[in-house]
What we know:
Layout: E1 18-22, H1 24-27, H2 38-43, H3 45-51, E2 55-58, E3 62-63, E4 75-79, H4 86-98, E5 102-107, H5 118-125, E6 137-138, E7 161-165, E8 171-176, H6 191-205, E9 211-214, H7 245-258, E10 265-268, H8 275-280, E11 289-290, H9 293-297, H10 302-316, E12 324-326, H11 335-338, H12 359-375, E13 379-383, H13 404-408, H14 456-460, H15 466-481, E14 489-491, E15 497-502, E16 512-518, E17 523-524, E18 530-534, E19 539-540, E20 546-548, E21 552-558
Parallel strand pairs: 1-2, 1-13, 2-5, 5-9, 9-10, 10-11, 12-13
Antiparallel strand pairs: 3-4, 6-8, 7-8, 14-15, 15-16, 16-21, 17-20, 18-21, 19-20
Helix pairs in contact: 6-7, 12-15
Amino acid sequence: MSQNAPRPQASPWWRHASIYQIYIRSFADGNGDGVGDIAGIRDRLPYLRDLGVDALWLNPWYVSPMADAGYDVADYRDIDPLFGTLAEAEELIARAHDHGLRVIVDLVPNHCSDRHPWFPRALAAGPGSPERERFWFLPGRGEHGELPPNDWQSYFGGAAWTRITEGDGTPGPWYLHMFAPEQPDLNWEHPGVRAEFEDILRFWLDRDVDGFRIDVAHGLAKKPGLPDVGPSPDPSDLPYQDVDAVHEVYRSWRRILDSYPGERAFIGEVWLPGAEQFARYLRPDELHSAFNFDFLCCPWDADALRKVVDSTLATHHPVAAPPTWVLSNHDTIRHVTRYGREDTSFDMGDKRLQDPSDTALGRRRARAAALLTLALPGGVYVYQGDELGLPEVQDLPDGVLQDPAFARSGGADRGRDGCRVPLPWAAGGPSLGFSVPPATAAPWLPQPPEWAGLSAAVQAGDPYSSLALYRAALALRRTELAPLPETLNWVDAGPDALGFDRPPGSGRPGAGFRCLTGFAGLLPLPADAEVLLSSGPLGATADGRPALPADTTVWLCLPGRGTP
């Protein structure tokens, strides 16, 4: 592509960033205790810099009893000793900035831990106390209050209510927990809750974080009176999500964020069925961006992917928000495994954790999906291990599973541990380089022996590895694609292919960029195209022309095809 073409004016980093998700427990262990930590991240910052990402998103590192891997927060202003200290966190932020990496921290506002100081005080204070008003304590139904206050179900299985016993031994009211009982929901109608989280935002902004990923961003507000869901609920009108009052929370947060220097950003975890509902969170005075779960859940199919891309762009356009793209995260099935199944779609309600998968096919498709994703306009997320082509670990023994969903469902849902297995950094040693020697404990989840061949050290020396592909793609994305307008033009690539151009913009000279993905057959490449990068080996037509095989993506430079 032309190196002399003028660049558009730089847009804020969060509009086009490549963001690497770090699930701290499983990234790198810097003290040898078998659990990932801040020291491990600090030691791997050069790796992340060389990978070519722009920012790091850190899953919760706060003080926590770890009933839900840190999403049960007991102290939002300190670091859990399992991961390090507040001083180490501050040093990590500074060192990441020295490497040109921004830092986004997880914020968990829907609920806290039952060990958070507020909750024991609420239990001790008794019925009708101001301390209980920070949560949802309600009397039960039935003659003796023996039934939950409503019919809401926990995301982890079972009722979303737990009954307490008062200090005098009598049965008390019930409290709401949309997740585990150890995660009581906060009452966002209470002004003290709002004031507390506004102060928490300032605490971390004062420590120079670049943004916040907001957990369960759609769930903070509840409908007045907490009505029943009912036997035939409307998924777009549930009483525990997407209640209008949540938007004023984010407007107040945005005012705080915008009062700080630099380009800080909010990213929302927003699971909602309707595009208009989703877009409301991205209005100019609310969140900057949100995860695109429709893309993650989409099957490996040309027509389905095109529809999702079109709908994503259409949803974001009216609110002028950047789209985001993600293939995996810490709550889902790794896409290497997903794409190797007969049914390549994903559904949080039915993960099909034990479905058989062809790993070789899945990895080939995952490489193709990576280039397709990285070519799209907007921001992109890379879950740790995606760059190594790691599959889901489907055969973890029951005895090592720690996700509360496993216990809450009576074993019916094996949970999310299979995508959280510690990363392989080296080809040898008891932890494949995850823990620094001499390690005092095994990794908190066992690693498959075959992961030795997928380790970062092995792949770093292989120019055809998944790691090499990601490094090359992220480098090209930063220099060639990120500066382009947030648009694409579809091209007719045939019935079993997907193709689009990223034009340089009106009046801009220079070459055009094209992304082509093949899903079946053999697709001849344009005669004048220069291959920039391919997810796998190219084929050839009968007359010797370069051609794109199935489950392969190629990036092309098309001289002279910039938008006139």
